[in-house]
Amino acid sequence: MIKRRQFLGGLTALSASYLLTACGGGGSGNASDKASAASAASGASGANAASAASSTNGNTTPVAKDASGTSADGTTLPASPYIIDKTGAKWTLSNGVIYRNGATVGNTYNVSLVLWYGGRVWHRGTGGQFYVIADVATQWLPCNDPRTAIAPPAGMFFGMNGHNDYTYTPQQIVSILKAMGCKSYRVGVTNNATQLNAVIGLAQAFQAAGMTLLVLIDQGVTDSYGNLWKGESAAYTQGYVVAQAVANALKPYGVTIYECGNELTRQNATVLDFTTAGTKAADFNNANWPVMRGLMRGMIDGVKSVQTNAKCGINFCVNDVGAADALWDGMQPDGSGGYPKVRWDITTWHNYEVYGDVFSLGADGAMPGFDLPTYCKARYGVPFIITEWNTGPEQTETYRGSYITSKLGEFYQNRKTHNIQAVMYYVLDSGNDTYGIMMNGTPLNPSYSAFTSFTAAHPDN
């Protein structure tokens, strides 16, 4: 059966919040996949939900607005007397120390520049290192200059999700994608022989067509009986064995991009409250965190043991920068550190409409939004791929068509400044009209025509 996301309904606890069941976009239908649940605390509403325009890396410094309005994007200190952030807080710089509303913010000294950019406050020390303020509001995390425009490799920007159990032949899928202007395709697999054989067939067809197959290694944090792996070491071993088998099978057919796990931060075992946005590490389960971390590390190492030059992605949902930062820096949700770091080659994210605008993504439903791809570009220094995106299944095809045109326009406009390598629509065929862009080989319009019209008019270069 073709899996699909299904709305569970609106929540009233947070503004515009919803729950989605996570099918695992390119997933394979294993037990952990069916048990997973992705949360959504959508972006800020009202004025705060306005899309953050892509800012240029210009040489001029905008002047801070007065205390009644947010400072212009790109405002810096000491060139301006102060910065007003989206919450109305006033930031100043005195003798190399940063203040917010007159109080020091964390431990800062020898600060040469404070920057308001993409909905976040950043600073640079006299030594040249940049830092960004974390959601905990007093912790500064090392990063790169967020204003630097980075263009990812071209050739796979317009992408699509699918499943390994489709009745379409690999050649039919290639033909369908070419007609839609897509050059990349995401599909999930485990080390199950039936699944692997199906994906090998896809890989052969894609290799012959010169197209990119992004393979999701769909290993969950639990075994086939729903039991959590017994500790970080056991999870690492499981991830390693499965990923190594997948990479061994697909290496001969030109697969070089793997996504290591699907929505692992949004499982019953890993997130404490599905209605939180995930901007704080404390939103996640401290006791089970090592299992997730071990699984991710194992999958990355398993792939690399076969293909040292392969690119491995870790995906996140909603606004899970709290999880991403903690994994990247070897931290636990309780704030303790010194643990193994998870370092990925591509940051991958799922961005459904209910989550909010990825370029102005809100924190915990009501907080002002910030530019997530800019944050990830600066923090992790690797390309960004949106491996699942769509509106909700309850929307009409007319609404969906308009949404596709609007979102593709926003993604396309920002691709060369935000290091966005691909955006992969969910899904080719969902077996009905909830998410699929076609059904049983027949296009669903106006969704299909909106997608193909956009790709035809906007080259992937």
Shape: globular
- In total, the number of domains comes to 2
Please tell me the CATH architecture of the largest domain by its name: Alpha-Beta Barrel
Radius of gyration: 22 Å
Give the class from helix and strand content and strand pairing: alpha/beta
- Name the beta content range: 15-25%
Number of strands: 22
Oligomeric state of the chains present here: single chain
User: What helical percentage do the residues reach?
Assistant: 25-40%
Mean pLDDT: 88
Specify the CATH class of the largest domain: Alpha Beta
Structure report:
- The protein is of the alpha/beta class and 461 residues long.
- It folds into two domains: 7-50 and 150-457, Alpha-Beta Barrel (TIM Barrel); 76-143, Thrombin, subunit H (Beta Barrel).
- It is 25% helix and 22% strand.
- It has nine helices and 22 strands.
- The chain has helices at residues 31-35, 170-180, 193-209, 232-250, 289-306, 321-329, 372-380, 397-414, 447-457; strands spanning 7-11, 17-21, 37-41, 76-77, 83-84, 90-94, 97-100, 103-104, 111-117, 120-125, 130-133, 140-143, 158-161, 184-189, 212-217, 257-260, 311-316, 346-352, 384-390, 420-425, 438-439, 442-443.
- The protein has an eight-stranded parallel barrel with strand order 13-14-15-16-17-18-19-20, surrounded by six helices. Strands 4-9-10-11-12 form a five-stranded antiparallel beta sheet, covered by helices on one side. A four-stranded antiparallel beta sheet has the order 5-6-7-8, with no helix packed on it.
- Helix 4 runs parallel beside helix 5 (289-306) and helix 8 (397-414) packs parallel to helix 9.
- Residues 1-61 have low confidence and may be disordered.
